[in-house]
Amino acid sequence: MEGQLKNGTILISESGNKYEVVSLLGAGGQGEVYDVKCEDRHYALKWYFKGSATERQKKILETIIAKGAPDTSFLWPMELIVPVKSDLFGYIMPLRPKHYKSIVDLMKKRVNPSFYTLCRTAFNLTKGYRELHAIGAKYQDISFGNLFFDPDTGEVLICDNDNVSFDNSKPGGVLGTPGFMAPEIVRGEKHPSRDTDRYSLSVLLFYLFMVNHPLEGKQEASIKCMDMAARIKLYGTDPVFIFDPNNKTNRPVKGIHDNANIYWPLYPEKMRQMFTKAFTVGLNEPSRRITEPEWMTLFSNMMHGIMQCSCGAQVFYDEELEAKGVAHTCWNCGKAVTVPYKIVIGKNCVLLNQNTKLLHHHVYDDFDVDTVVGSVVQNPKNPALWGIRNEDKVNWTYQKADGTQIPVAPGKTAGIAKGVKIIFPESTGEFR
C-alpha cells in the first residue's frame, strides 16, 4: 500500500520538530494517516489530499491546536506540518495503541467485552464529549468510525478531531456521517451544534449496547434501494424508533435485526426509558435530548449494579423490577438472582458485592470514578459480617436505626445493615 509520502521522508513541523515517515497506516476521505517518528517516539500524522488541504482547514486546525485537548481521551492535533515547497499540509497527533478496538470490531464479534467494560466505555466516551462541549466546541461528526476503546478496561480514544468547531467560528463543511446525523440536519434545516452532537452520541451509545441502529427496523428492511431519498425518509423526515412504545411500525425484523431483540431486554428499565426518550422526544425536540451528565449517571449506576448469577452470567440490577416486587431473572439460565445489599446515595446506587469499591463520584456526585473512598470488606473475626472500610480522607458518621451516631475514622469500617445510614461530608447513604 503506497501513499503520498514515502517511508523515510523527513518533515519539519512549524515548531521545528523533525518527523520521519515510518509507514502508511490507512486512508480516509480527507487524507492519509502515517506512523511517524520523532526522537524515537512514535506519533500519527494526518496528511491531507489536495482537495482537503484548504486554507479554511488550516485555520480550523490552528484554532484546535491553540485551544488544546479537552482531556486525555482525545487524539488531539498537536502541531502543524506545512512544507514551504508544497501546497499540502498535515498535522501531528498521538498514535493510537494497537490494542484499542472499534465498535466495528464489536459488531463483527472480534471482541467480547464484559457488561462492566461496556458501561465504562460509555461513561468515558460521554465524559469526553461533555468536556469538549464545556470548552465551547462541537464535534460535528460523531460516529463509530471515530471511537476506539480498550476491551479490557473501557478506556476510550476519540480520533478525527480536525473538524471540531468552536462557537465563535463559522460552521465547518462537515455535516456528519449518514445514519448518525440528527434529523434536522438530514432535512437540511440546521447546521451541527451541541444538540445535534447529543443526538449522534445517543446513536453511537445505542450501537455500543444493542449492536444495531435505533431507527433500522422493518422500514429499513423494506427498502429496496438505499438511495438518498430513502436515507432522508428513514433518518430525516419519517424516523421511527424501533422500540417506540406508541408506534410499532418499525420493530426489529427477526433474522435481520436480531441483536436489537436480544440485547434490549438485558438492560435496566432506566436505560430503556432514556433511549426511548432520545429517539422519540429527541427526534423532534433537540433541546430535550439526553445530556451527557444524565447518561453518565446512568452508566455509573450500571457499572456498579451488576449481579452474578450462580450459573456465572452477569445480570443488571433493575430498581423498577424491585419496586414492583418482581424477581430478577437470569437471562442465561432463567433462575432468580438474589439482590445483594446496596447503598443509595442521592441518585447513585451501589450494589455491595464482595470487593465492591465505593468511589468518589458515589459520595461527592462529581463523576470521579477513579478515586476510591471505600471498600466492601469481610469481618476477619466473623466472616458472616460485612462492612465498608473508610478509605476517604475525612471522618464519616454511622447512624443506626435508632438514631445513635458513631464516628467512622479513615481506616475504620461501617457495618452493612438495612436501615442504617452513613453520613458523608456532602451526602447521606442508606443501606437497603
From TrEMBL:
PROSITE patterns in the record: PROTEIN_KINASE_DOM
Pfam families for this protein: Pkinase
Q: Does the keyword Transferase apply?
A: yes
Looking up SUPFAM superfamilies in the UniProt record yields: Protein kinase-like (PK-like)
What's the superkingdom here? Answer: Bacteria
Name all Protein kinase domain ranges.
19-307
What are the protein's GO molecular function terms? protein serine/threonine kinase activity
| SMART domains per the UniProt record, alphabetical | S_TKc
Q: What keywords were assigned to this record? A: ATP-binding, Kinase, Nucleotide-binding, Serine/threonine-protein kinase, Transferase
Is S-adenosyl-L-methionine found in the keyword set?
Answer: no
According to UniProt, the name of this protein is: Serine/threonine protein kinase
Q: Which organism is it from?
A: Dorea hominis
